[in-house]
Amino acid sequence: ILLLNRGRMSAAVGSQSSLDSEGSEDVAAAAYASPLYPDLSNERQQCSAAVHSGNSPQVPSNPQVGYTWTTPALDVSQVRWFFRDQAWTNEKGGGERCKLWTPFMGYDSLQLEFQFRHHVTTGETPDKVLVRGGLYHVDVLARTSQPIYWNEEGHEVLRGVWFNTKSWQPLDEESAGRLEAQYVQLWPLNAPVVIPPRKQNEKPKSWAKVELEGCHVEFYGPGQVLQFNNSKTSQLTRTVGVDLLGLAKAGKADRELVRGYSVAAVQTDVIPPVSHLVFMVHGIAQKPTIEFKIDTVCQHQVHNMCTATRNLVAKYQRELYPHLTNHRTEFIPIEWRSKIALDGGVIDTVTVRKLRLVRELGNASVLDVLYYTSPLFIQEIIATVVNEMHRLYSIFTQHNPGFEANGGKVSLIGHSLGSVICYDILTNHNPVDQYVTHITNNLTEAGDAAAAAASGGEEEEEATSDVMREYLDTKLKLLQLEANLVRSSGRLVHTKALPFKVECYFAVGSPLGCFLSVRGVKPFLHGSIDNILPKSAARRFFNLYHPCDPVAYRLEPLLFPWYSRLKPVPVHHWAAKDKVPYEQLAREAFSEDEAATELVTAATGGKKKGKDKSRSLKEFKKDIKESRTNAVSKFTH
């Protein structure tokens, strides 16, 4: 129950437009679409003037001095809303224990309080409120917060009125309501109350006591509300302190409680609008084992990857680019594994029961690669990812209407198999058409060869040539019929174009180099990036990997053959000083010893003992020296 007089409360609801009308609130206005209460701006200003007009006296530090106290109604800026995960398990003692409450930013808290007070005054069902940069929405009545772009267990939401001064954690709403009721009963709202002075050496007097779960709260004055633990140890300590040591009971309180949050909620306390949106596509090993559900394991892992990346980027942006205060990069996960049926569980039925856990782990990881290399499933996976990007981008633009108008950029990050999926989306890869084209070219070349062989004019050779042509034509028609059958089966889905232009494409821990090699991509001497990814598909392309990642492959040798002799460029540490721009770094070739060691190991099967090693190493050094010289000179040219 809100213990506020109705007239002041209705004025306290106010409007967002009054806050937006201040010159310093442009960031908040850009982050959200429209004000909530544009017709109540005057009332909101009048309420702020009345609450902060100096009519609320401060409690004097000297208790021996009497004073007059007037309890003010809490302004919307003094109430703070919080959120936390539903619950988490205490690993040591078992059972469940809750995390600490996290305060919403000032802008979010104001919107939540506006909706709450509007509901109290009018009885209307409040709208869901976008919070935390538009990633979550809050149901004010249910006190829950749910993510918008991914499936996850929601967060609890709490309206904080009474707080612990040590940690500034809020009391639960039931306890806070009981304290508020007792507080305004002792010192009514907007009614002056005379607080008598206290005599010297007089123990503080408790005006009232409220019993709560596991503790009790005593009111010693408007500015002195103390919470005591009801445990035997706490009671004994307080009793010994008062009776034997002559200490006041108030001095042995476990906590001091205050009414209203320590930091006022202001409109400028808001997350800046999104200027760069990044979709993150996961790879293999996202299908759980038999012990887990796919929607809880896969989506949780993808969400954690986005959260970690988002936090790191925000941290480094504050440290390295402090002037970019009105820009934000947002990361949204694309979880595709749980949205496709694939074989419908047939693989599980043929999996041998012995070593079941090991086989399940294999099915959960390597099997995704086999699915993707199959022409029956690859288009289903690609279409699922594209449809998910369309759906999430549509939701994002609805919640951020100024994103495209302000030149917002969109990039893709693909991890492991996800990088191959992103690449195939950008290049509109179709394995059936690629296969038909490849076979058609080969059959055409074979037919031309047969025709050339029959050019001697002999009747027998001409008959052989006609038979060969008829055979090749029949096989080509059969191949086309097979392709049409695959298309008609529903597995081959026409892929829609992306609804945005891709700025950057990041392949992280990517096997794309291996996939392209298997597909027949070969380097050309001119070394154009169009050999792999045209700039019309993505303006910039990055292949990032750890040298020890067994799944990652290089891509530079597919651009230019001599790149295989050059070392990959290491990524600068974020805190490194005097960073040389990557385009200015000198390319280093593999040293003779490194390259020779690799070649000897490959040639001898890992055996490098005896005279054969010396002789082989000498020969290889000579070859590598020549190759290294040619590589550097050709690359420089």
Give structural notes:
- With 637 residues, this protein is an alpha+beta fold.
- 41% of the residues lie in helices and 15% in strands.
- The chain is built from 18 helices and 20 strands.
- The chain has helices at residues 6-13, 16-20, 26-31, 41-51, 106-122, 173-186, 232-243, 294-320, 346-350, 356-373, 378-399, 417-426, 431-453, 459-488, 512-518, 556-559, 592-604, 610-636; strands spanning 67-70, 80-85, 88-89, 96-97, 102-103, 129-131, 136-139, 144-147, 155-160, 162-164, 192-195, 208-212, 215-221, 224-229, 255-259, 276-281, 329-334, 409-415, 502-508, 538-544.
- The chain has a six-stranded antiparallel beta sheet, covered by helices on one side. A five-stranded antiparallel beta sheet has the order 10-15-14-13-12, with helices on one face. Strands 17-16-18-19-20 form a five-stranded parallel beta sheet, sandwiched between helices.
- A hairpin with a 4-residue loop joins strand 6 (129-131) and strand 7.
- Helix 1 (6-13) crosses helix 4 (41-51).
- It is elongated, with a radius of gyration of 35 Å.
- The relative contact order is 0.07.
- The model is unreliable at 1-57, 88-96, 242-252, 288-297 and 607-615 (pLDDT under 50).
Task: Describe, in short, the structure shown.
With about 625 residues, the protein is of the alpha+beta class. It has 18 helices and 20 strands.
